[in-house]
């Protein structure tokens, strides 16, 4: 008699494409591949807000040459493409990446996000993340999109929930950053959840949802379940 086993969910694919190093453009923001050419534009924002690097493994920067060195490193990582975030008609104000790509498991992550305080909380910031979500789920067809942050990082923790990611749990004392032992919180969004999450984000990002001053009319409401 055969023994029935629950082996999970069958998936016909065994390999997913790697992220494509290309620009992305939305209603309110453009994403260009990060390079040292963005140094002069990014430096005033990085210099003015050293506290904005608290939960990253690089920064803050005591001088422009240290930022140049970091941009050189980030922009040349072979398996982690970075994009610079440019609100329409304005200079770059941050960056973000696609990282920890498990292309044989269908899992991909958006991470290493640095947004200057002037960019944080804006529709341009949310759309920047949305554009990479679309790239991962629509262009590349991944099964699982990951958001990971230090559990002490309340802004990132709340951003994950607002974007429609599901909290999976916290790995205790999982990372050491700047001499501090920190917990790491994990979130995910699955392929079959994405269409509803995308529709909610797309509706919130519509131009009709913002007044002449750029303030939202309706809050972002994510479907439950």
From TrEMBL:
Domain N-acetyltransferase span(s) in chain numbering: 29-194
Database matches in Pfam families: Acetyltransf_3
Alphabetized PROSITE patterns for the sequence: GNAT (PS51186)
Gene3D superfamilies recorded: 3.40.630.30
Stored InterPro entries: Acyl_CoA_acyltransferase, GNAT_dom, Ribosomal_N-acetyltransferase
Entry superkingdom: Bacteria
Listed name of the protein: N-acetyltransferase
């Amino acid at each position: 008699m055969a023994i029935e086993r629950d082996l999970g969910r069958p998936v016909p694919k065994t390999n997913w494409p790697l992220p494509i190093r290309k620009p992305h453009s939305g209603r309110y923001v453009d994403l260009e591949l990060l390079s040292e050419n963005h140094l002069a534009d990014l430096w005033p924002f990085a210099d003015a807000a050293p506290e904005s690097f608290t939960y990253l493994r690089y920064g803050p920067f005591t001088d422009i040459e240290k930022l140049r060195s970091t941009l050189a490193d980030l922009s040349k990582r072979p398996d982690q493409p970075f994009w610079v975030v440019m609100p329409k008609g304005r200079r770059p104000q941050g960056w973000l990446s696609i990282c920890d790509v498990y292309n044989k498991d269908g899992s991909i992550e958006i991470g290493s996000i640095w947004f200057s305080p002037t960019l944080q909380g804006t529709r341009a910031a949310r759309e920047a993340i949305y554009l990479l979500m679309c790239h991962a789920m629509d262009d590349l067809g991944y099964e699982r999109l990951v958001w990971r942050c230090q559990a002490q990082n309340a802004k990132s923790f709340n951003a994950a929930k607002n974007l429609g990611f599901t909290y999976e749990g916290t790995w205790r004392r999982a990372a050491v950053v700047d001499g501090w032992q920190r917990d790491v919180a994990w979130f995910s969004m699955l392929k079959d959840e994405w269409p509803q999450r995308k529709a909610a984000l797309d509706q919130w990002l519509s131009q009709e949802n913002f007044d002449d001053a750029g303030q939202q009319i309706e809050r972002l409401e994510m479907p439950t379940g």
